[in-house]
Amino acid sequence: MNRALGIILDGKGFTTGDAILELSYLIAALLFVFGLKLLSHPESARRGNLWAAAGMGLAMVTTLLLHKTSEGTGIPLTNVWIILAAIGLGSVIGWIMAKRVKMTAMPQLVSFFNATGGAASALVGLLEYPNAVAGNISSIMVTVLGLVIGAIAFSGSMIAYGKLEGKVGDIMKPFMTYINLALLILTVALGAYIIFSPNLPSQMTWAIYTLLALSLIYGVLFVMPIGGADMPVVISLLNSLTGIAASMAGFIYNNQAMILGGILVGAAGMILTLLMCRAMNRSLLNVIIGSFGVGANVAGGDQGVIKEITLSDAAILLSYSQKVVFIPGYGLAVAQAQHIAHELDELLENKGVEIKYAIHPVAGRMPGHMNVLLAEADVPYEKLIEMDDINPGMPDVDVAVVVGANDVVNPAAYDDPGSPIYGMPIIDAHMAKNVIIMKRGMGKGYAGIENALFFNDKTRMLFGDAKSSIQKLVAEIKTL
Ligand code: NAP
Q1: What is the average pLDDT across 417-424?
Q2: Residue nearest to atom 40 of ligand 1 (CA)
Q3: What tens digit of pLDDT does each residue of 179-215 get?
């Protein structure tokens, strides 16, 4: 609307085309928000994606048809063809990649797509810098910010992609923190110099290319030391940066759809980042500097006695229960036990047992990991209950079946102030009348700490790979 107002105030006239263009951006923005709302539930998420894509499609079509260049003419036809060719090529590549990707490789794909978004914003900044008005601080600032943030998001996301693909290793050297800090200060200082310099952009070419190089290096070095399992948080952070960079590009072109779309991505990415950090009971700084579990107060020694349960006892206990809650965790993903878990759940349900799945926000190793796995196994959505909703009912549950989860059911989060997970919300498995824990041995979870639940009087361990344990359990229940 700024542009519309500007045109009216300039007295240059506001054509019907301009009005349609501005209106289409407003509709696109509404579609983004509506799509985002639908994305918040697995059942409506697919529709949400389509609505948001329709908004983006609308903004693209109206821009191509109605956008006016600074000379007041439409986009030259040659450029339209080049843009259409690029859109076509990008769509085909994106389609093929998205069709082929395995569910477990989703974070890599997100990271790769995110890198392209960052690169696009950085290129806009680089190409538009010479057109920025010398002395106009806000015009130069959005250009420089778009370039820096976009470049960091690009190189950081490519490193994240490489790490998740197992092609790039971790560098955990403590001095990396100081190098990164120095690099960040240098980047900010050079960016500020460019923004406030009275020189013409043509005199600052060396500075803008140096800034681009510094930002790219910073992106690489910032992600390199972060531990592999913290990658989902970093990817979400980088995603947020790409959104912010895109909104800067939107300011450069005074394009409302780009500004709003970018802000929505930036805000959503930041909220997800902070929610993940909160669910892991860690600060963002702690994730970035990466010291989780190191020197943690690892409770060991005399914890109590471990009690095992036989398959036939487990089969009888589950078959004669009224309420059973499955608590899946990272081990379920490793064992790929989701399909057989669903078979067990249906088998028990046919015997009149009420089955629910308790979903912890950071169970597994990526946001929504358990939802994705269980959806893949066709477990109905209504059986997946969020942590906050299931916890109040846990004392009424006859058996909590913990399938390859550890940290997300560790009561140290409530009662051990020295524990690295103290304060992290958990699923209250310990409140159930009985607890069966399926895991291979006494291996620790991601936080690297002991779990008192394993030694609880109510708990019995069913050792073995989760998939084969459940397979045997299903066979045993069928013989009852
Ligand atoms: P967890 O604490 O990492 O524990 C997983 C357990 O699974 C291990 O103790 C392991 O014990 C067992 N396991 C491994 N392979 C198995 C198999 N084949 N069959 C049966 N059990 C197996 O997992 P969680 O409870 O899901 O907690 C997730 C952790 O990851 C949290 O600390 C969270 O903060 C962190 N994290 C999550 C995300 C996210 O976005 N979801 C991102 C980063 C970090 P054995 O070796 O004895 O079998």
Answers
A1: 85
A2: 366
A3: 888 999 999 999 999 999 888 888 889 999 999 999 9
What is the CB neighbour count within 10 angstroms for residue 345?
Answer: 23
319-354: per-residue pLDDT in tens?
A: 999 999 999 999 999 999 999 999 999 999 999 999
> Cβ(243)–Cβ(266) under 8 Å?
yes
**Ligand 1 atom, smallest distance to 408 CA:** 25
Q: How far apart are CA 297 and CA 127, in angstroms?
A: 52
Q: Does ligand 1 come within 6 angstroms of the Cβ of 362?
A: yes
* Ligand 1 centroid distance, CA of 459 (Å): 18
Look at ligand 1, atom 46, and give the residue with the nearest C-alpha: 443
Q: Is the pTM here over 0.90, yes or no?
A: no
Annotated catalytic sites, by residue?
A: 407
Percent of the chain clearing pLDDT 90 (strictly above): 65
Neighbours of 338 (CB within 10 A): 25
Question: Which ligand 1 atom sits nearest the alpha carbon of residue 446?
Answer: 3
Computed from CA positions of residues 80, 83, 89, 95, in that sequence, does the dihedral angle turn out positive or negative?
Answer: negative
Mutate to test the pocket of ligand 1, among 292, 446, 472 (most ligand atoms within 8 A of CB): 446
Alpha carbon distance 205, 209 (integer Å): 6
Residue 324, classed as helix, strand or coil, is: strand
DSSP string, 146-165: HHHHHHHHHHHHHHHHHHHT
